[in-house]
Amino acid sequence: MVVIKTCDSDFEQKFKELLGRGAMDMEHVSSIVAQIIKEIRSEGNKALKKHIAKFDGWEPKSAEDLRVDPESMQKAYEELDAGLKDALHLAFDRIKSYHEKQMPKSWIDFDEAGNMLGQKVTAVDRAGLYIPGGKAAYPSSLLMNAIPAIVAGVEEIVVTTPAPENEINHLLLAAGHLCGIKKMFKVGGASAIAAMAYGTETIPKVDVITGPGNIFVATAKKMVYGDVNIDMIAGPSEIGILADESAIPEYLAIDLLSQAEHDEMASSILITPSNELAESVRETVYIELGKLERELIARKSIEERGAIIVTETMDEAIELMNEIAPEHLEVVTSNPFELLPKIKHAGAIFLGAFTPEPIGDYMAGPNHTLPTGGTAKFYSPLSTENFIKKSSIIAMSEEGINEIGEACALLAKTEGLTAHEKSVKIRLK
């Protein structure tokens, strides 16, 4: 894990490389993904079965083989250890409570002329959730994607998840039951995105697709956007930490590794004005690495995409972190709330020594589906708003249109739209 200083002569080049951490070479997979989408659109289930046999190592014999039986989800839930079941319920309740608070509202407003203006909030009819499999299974991702859709009032939720060797994680099935999922399908990758975007004989077409995935999933979501809505184009996971000399090195080292163990492409970056803290954290990272079950994955991530930056001041550290715009940002300083107004760009902000990033992954309540690769500068976390749409409401009174109609007609005439102009004028006194 490299330690670099802002006073180094080559700092600008090294920092530029860090800023490029989220770059995904979609070009080299785009032709493959385009062909997968084309086959799904033209062949439906036939293509799905072929792709599953190729990528997941088993061959569905019928359309029913693609489905996950709701009874199997219920059975998995009932067989859960009591402690694990309680933990799932606690997470569900906290996530639901948080998302209920962020739900946008419909509103109507009347003015003195009797005009009515407003906004009508309506859930999409059907949402598609992509839940990753492969190297690890993420029941927490199902909770984080399904609960805001439930809160938003989506009538039908469709879940797709890869099932290598026709096996699905037991806890993921249990989470599906807890969320009331009725339609879950054993298909992953770009095939799943295409199936939800365009529909097959078995998988219904959805209105919005959310959920993280690998470069094939991200590329497919980008390609189908416009035919359906999507949440964001998410890349590898990442953490940024702002810390001062008051921070405990062991805390920071483990928190950096908590992202590194996700996959080899994850990024872990600490920025601090303290030379002593920087060196101590670096040493502790390598001590703790050897204790991890996923040591090889975490080590490659730390060696190739991890960094500690030493700045002259905390203000300089904040400026650099705003430029990085990390997915997760921990602020571990003597008074983290003082720094909050200065932080402009981050997917989720974790304040204080007792707020590690994993508490946000599972239990705190805010969504863990977050913008990566610097896209926190313009993307927001997944929320209820990803599952709703807003309609404007306009109702003019006779007095109201007479009050503003001439100005409206003039603008229409200036743009050369005479029918627009006349449409207003014929209603004026």
Describe this entry's structure for a reader.
The chain has 429 residues and is of the alpha/beta class. The protein has 3 domains: 2-24 and 235-364, Nitrogenase molybdenum iron protein domain (Rossmann fold, 3-Layer(aba) Sandwich), CATH 3.40.50.1980; 27-230, Nitrogenase molybdenum iron protein domain (Rossmann fold); 396-425, no CATH class. The protein is 45% helix and 17% strand. The protein has helices at residues 11-19, 27-43, 45-55, 70-78, 82-101, 139-152, 170-178, 189-198, 215-224, 249-260, 275-289, 295-305, 314-324, 336-339, 357-362, 398-414, 418-425, and strands at 2-5, 67-68, 107-110, 116-123, 126-130, 156-161, 183-186, 208-210, 229-230, 238-243, 267-272, 306-310, 328-332, 348-351, 388-395. The strands form 3 sheets. The chain has a 6-stranded parallel beta sheet, sandwiched between helices. α10 (249-260) links the parallel β10 (238-243) and β11. α5 runs parallel beside α6 (139-152), α10 (249-260) crosses α11 and α10 (249-260) packs across α12 (295-305). The protein starts with a strand and ends with a helix.
